[in-house]
């Protein structure tokens, strides 16, 4: 108590009598008087505010910092009251003065406590801020003077001084500088609630101080701390950061450079456009980086000056405090400017990234057909999510490259300045180590480039496989395609493991070079006698080499990243310069209806490939008047779809002209449906017109379907329309076209996926009625509709061979007559059955149209939940569970122990070598050789353990990557079909690409650093405390506060990363979706709308990137401030310690380590937080590893005989199917028998359960109850592979894979070329393939895009002809084939599968009319099952379906009959 009493011993106003301004007594008395005056004014204001209650503006909840500071003030006031009381009791001579003085000071501190807690009015806040600031300034001035004059200061005075600084902080916070004030929700709500947009980020209206300290992010972090963040909580970007402006600026620069570009100039336009656009902001970033680099390069000189000062006999405290001041300035400059360099460079990168993502997207909307073949959908997605994404980090790496080089030069300069010519030998190993980095970097860059190429191949294959998973499962090709993906990954893994091991050896070089260089420099000093080997020289050299190690390590890595960016620039340049659709070369499209003709083509010759001489369309002359209905027919591959593409301007024109007047609506042959609701797909960006919308639904026979969906027209459609039947997708497309209300309608075989009855409704109600005033060009195989149209174009071999109306063409004979004759043959049987009851059946047909139209059983419609759910993401703390999952899943616990052990030994040896130098230089008789030798030996030992740590880290990562990839791939291939129906491909791909990439590269490094750096930090603090234990008073609270800030940040950062994981997939999905439907988008003239939607998706993803980065800089700045406080305290204490208290060697060692503390703490914080963020990728991959698997491929105990099924008899026993637990039944108690060798036709309205029955037969969906028995064996008892390999199917949607004709027909390589040629001959493809130069090795492009839909279906027929199984399923297999080819195919199937059980699901009645049995399904129930002839004799559902078909064909058959007569 007496000790504390000393601090107020001369605190007496009696000294004011003998006024001497220079005395401490007077100065303290002035401060006390000022504080009392402020306290009195404060209480007066408080009383006034209590009386004037109307002025009270509330007392909002106090910030935690105010509460902590008020507690500190209260403790100090209690201490003063205790002193006063003690002195009152002591009753010594001076005690009365001291006692009342203690009470006065206690009152002042109590008043400060109250002022912190009670601020009832704005002007009280201002008064408090002035009071706290004045008090802090006065006390600081007094204490600094005491330090200068007495070189000592009492601990109690230091404590009060620190609290005054906290009061100053509170003053700034009170005025809103150090925290962004969040406005209460009730006050910020707009009066008319018209503003529902997401609030803009705080950066736009932040003050200078708020920007400086990143405090504008406080409201978001505060919100994230109080509740898990959601996407709607994230503020939107500033307009200057948005993708639209970034893209406009980029394109302005691009166009300007493109104009300047000459033919011989090959410079990369993307790179130079980026440079031109972002140069100014990067000059400012470069200025920040320059100041930071200078501050870092001067830090060794501070150690040099300090050792010189501590060795001096007559210490001048001013000089010591000047060193402390220099430390403060250098640390503040280093910290603040580095943080803003990092943030601003990533913000600049964000704009580059957005601009390039948008540029690629915009380009894909303009790519020509040949360019689209060069850039597949998968590749375009890669350009966006790999190459453009990489630009987010490009400015950071660019500035890192030149600043590292500058730091290298400055550090070498400092080295020469300190040790003179002795530094020269040290340059030799430095140059050698630097040069050794070059081949390392080249090898590493080569490995990463090869890795990226392999990754591209794997992702392309993965995308294709995921898009075609249904056919893969039906054919039981999972093992084959899984092996393909694993083989591609194995190649990728070779380059990954080489890259990781190269990085490990690179780290060895990184740690070895300072040891070698320092040893050689010391040797040089000893030999040249250029500088004494004392503490100043040794520890300055170490500090300089520490600075040197950063550029030596970073330059190769930076160059490697710059090279990767260069590769990306080249890839982006290639696509952005690629060929676009050219509308200026004779293809004209006018929106106005100015011409007499809607469409005109004169002497048109077209080819897909300019280099190829083969024309796809030749000598096309066409004139289509307004309001005409034109039908285009012809055999498979005749060029019907190509004609529509020519009108759309999609096929390059060799000669002739094409004129299209008016707006176009287009319905593609392969349905293109967007993810979204049914309503979204029909409206297609147009405003809702209820009458027109309902009419479009009605005429496209969608009304019944929509009523059956649980969410009506708001039912979500899965990716690529996966949860809709083929007929539903086609009718949604048609409704989209009808609602669009264009002038010209191009319909590419829209009736192929619907039954005859629905086709008749669509033709009559939609084409002939709803579109009666429109120009319609209809490609069709349905001959029955041709008599209704104005003109028929017959195509063959890419030429329009005949044109005219129905009667004229029949009279002319040739190709058209063959088509009609083929059709007539197929319905001749119907003619006999219908001769006597035509009129009756027609009327019944019309009755059915009204009452029984389109009973839908949608796979999803009645489930009560949308198919595609919001992407699942965890909420809350990742915790150690996910980390332990990563370690245990890959069985890497032992490896982790080895990493920690190796790091521990490395740190002990490194520190040991430094201690040896610090202690050995004090021993006068020790030779330089011994000094350097022992140091080198210990250091090299440590470096060996650093190498081991890196190798163990790499091995752990590689092991984990292998385990996770294998499990993930297995889980995906074993997943049931429902998983693919309800999961967008983008979600799976983000896990297979970016998440897996984090597992490959980032997590191993993060684990190594996060596990090893804490040991280093603890060691540094121990060394500092060993010299001056008082540093712990600051160091420990700083560590605790750092951990608090880290925890506070992590809560929000974790959710930001998670949300970011869900915002990237929509960017990929949308780009992929647009690429697949780009022809439709362009035809509808919707490119601008899609572009705007894409901008929103890019901005949503970008705002997560921006806020994640600023949150990290917010944290690092605060941790640096706390650790810098520790460093400054350590320096101050070393300056203040008495002479000889600590040897100069140990003092230099302590300061040298203190300087590394901030860097180590920030480095650890960054990597620890990164690790927690990276672990979210583990979490996301594990979500898919844990999805329920479908039944096993092979059940060893229940394998069927190899000859099974020998007969092909199928028994359905009370079969019930539902798609999900608790969902309604889709098939309801079906019982029947398909006899061996019989041909069974399955008919019913679209969506009646036909395809579900096939899914059940192949066990794509498991029976809810009942059994399917084939040849006496229950199929549910055997493995899926055993079942599916014994069944053959031609699916509803023919699927081809990128590769060759051979690999598409025989993916498993089971058949000879001779067998394949025979199969091709039977399925009518031999002639086409024989004419190709590479025969069976001819290429098949992505998704079979270079073959027509009909040809693709013939390939699928070829597959089953090769397999020759006892059971064959045709799932609407001939829907895209013309009648003539259909007749041939049916004959082939009859011949080749005469003894097989053939189940045919068909829309065309003739396809099943010659079946042995017909099954009629309605609403999932078996309505009829009998021989067709018997069903025709009764008033059955089947006879009604036949009647509908007959009524629609009757007109077609009348005219040929009359002609024949």
Q: Can you walk through the features of this model?
A:
This protein is of the alpha/beta class. The chain is 63% helix and 9% strand. The protein is elongated and about 125 Å long.
> Count of DSSP E strands?
24
Q: Show unreliable segments.
A: 1-14, 54-60, 177-197, 829-864, 1451-1461
Percentage beta strand: 5-15%
State the share of residues found in helices, binned by percent. 55-70%
How would you characterize the largest beta sheet? Answer: 6 strands, mixed
Strand order of the largest sheet: 6-9-10-4-11-12
- End-to-end distance, in Å? 131 Å
- The helix tally amounts to 47
Helix- and strand-based class?
A: alpha/beta
In round numbers, the mean pLDDT is 78
Radius of gyration equals 40 Å
Shape: elongated
Furnish the topology, listing elements before pairings.
Blueprint: H1 2-6, H2 24-51, H3 64-90, H4 95-117, H5 122-150, H6 155-174, H7 185-188, H8 208-212, H9 218-226, H10 243-260, H11 269-311, H12 317-364, H13 369-374, H14 377-390, H15 394-419, H16 424-467, H17 469-475, H18 478-528, H19 535-576, E1 587-590, E2 597-606, E3 617-625, E4 629-633, H20 640-648, E5 653-661, E6 664-667, E7 676-677, H21 678-683, H22 690-699, H23 703-708, E8 716-717, H24 726-740, E9 744-748, H25 756-770, E10 775-779, E11 791-796, E12 799-804, H26 806-812, H27 814-834, H28 838-851, H29 879-889, H30 893-920, H31 928-974, H32 977-982, H33 985-1027, H34 1032-1076, H35 1078-1083, H36 1087-1136, H37 1144-1185, E13 1210-1217, E14 1227-1234, E15 1239-1244, H38 1250-1257, E16 1265-1270, E17 1273-1274, H39 1280-1284, E18 1287-1290, E19 1299-1300, H40 1301-1305, H41 1313-1322, H42 1326-1330, E20 1339-1340, H43 1349-1363, E21 1367-1371, H44 1379-1392, E22 1397-1401, H45 1405-1409, E23 1413-1418, E24 1421-1426, H46 1428-1433, H47 1437-1460
Parallel strand pairs: 1-5, 4-10, 4-11, 6-9, 9-10, 15-22, 15-23, 18-21, 21-22
Antiparallel strand pairs: 2-3, 2-5, 7-8, 11-12, 13-14, 13-16, 16-17, 19-20, 23-24
